[in-house]
Amino acid sequence: MSSGVLLLFAHPRPDLSNCNVKLFDAASATDVTSVDLYGTYPRYDIDVDAEQQRLRDHHTLVLQFPIYWYSTPPLLKAWIDLVLEYGFAYGVGGDALAGKRLLCAVTTGAAESAYGPDGVHGHSLRELLRPLERTAMLCQMQYLPPFALFGAQRVAAADALDPHTAQWRALLTRLNDPAPMPESALAGDSLNPGGQLLQMEGA
Predict the structure, then answer these.
(1) Which domains does the chain have, with CATH numbers?
(2) Which uninterrupted H or E stretch holds 65?
(3) At 8, which helix (H) or strand (E)?
(4) Contact at 8 Å (CB) between 155 and 92?
(5) Cβ–Cβ contacts within 10 Å for residue 42, how many?
(6) For residues 147 and 104, is the Cβ–Cβ distance under 8 A?
(7) Beta carbons within 8 Å of 19's beta carbon, 6+ residues apart
(8) Residues 84-104 as b or e (16 or more Cβ within 10 Å = b)
């Protein structure tokens, strides 16, 4: 029987991280299973069997990463390509992830105003993450709107990470509850600031 949250952290240059390492450390201090993918697989030699077992053992998958050119860092993409294989995550007999949840917890260099039809990127963050949303749908998972820290460099420079970290811890605590998420929590572009999940009873 699966239980709890599995958090996969993917940052190819943690030594240059403004916020991600601190958020990963904060998550590791909570009751979640935290895995540093680049620390575990520096040569990209992903142990597919071990990673698939991790997924079986948890009801919620959180992918934590900085946005890289509108996508994931390369090791996380390789992990998705290899681990979420036919017959395991989708296709004939591929129902190992059915009913589980997927959340992307991301940081961006640009401010929130850059995302949307009038912003420099032309699309909301959720729209830019649509390939991961469709991946979740193919794997019969419940996809949650992203939890995002916009303008991470400016937040770090202003020493203003604490409120986001507090929301992050609260969200992870909520996600440890296996109860299905309400439809109202799935409709928005993001879960923050103070997103719907954090306002639910027990969050």
Answers:
(1) 5-199 (3.40.50.360)
(2) strand 60-66
(3) strand 5-9
(4) no
(5) 10
(6) yes
(7) 107, 149, 152, 155, 156, 161, 164
(8) beeebbbeeebebbeebbbbb
Alpha carbons 9 and 21: distance in angstroms, whole number:
9
pTM: 0.91
The CA dihedral of 84, 150, 197, 98, to the nearest 10 degrees, is: -10
Placement of tokens 């996380």 in the chain? 76
Q: List per-residue pLDDT tens for the chain, 203 residues long.
A: 457 999 999 999 998 888 999 999 999 998 999 999 999 999 999 999 999 999 999 999 999 999 999 999 999 999 999 999 999 999 999 999 999 999 999 998 887 888 888 888 888 888 999 999 999 999 999 999 999 988 888 888 888 888 889 999 989 999 998 877 777 777 777 776 543 333 333 33
Q: Tell me how crowded residue 106 is: count the other CB atoms within 10 A of its CB.
A: 24
For residue 10, what are its two tokens?
Answer: 């993917």
Within the chain, what is the greatest distance between any pair of CA atoms?
Answer: 51
* Neighbour-count burial for 20-37, b at 16+ CB within 10 Å, e otherwise: bebbbebbeebebbbbbb
Place of tokens 């450390």: 25
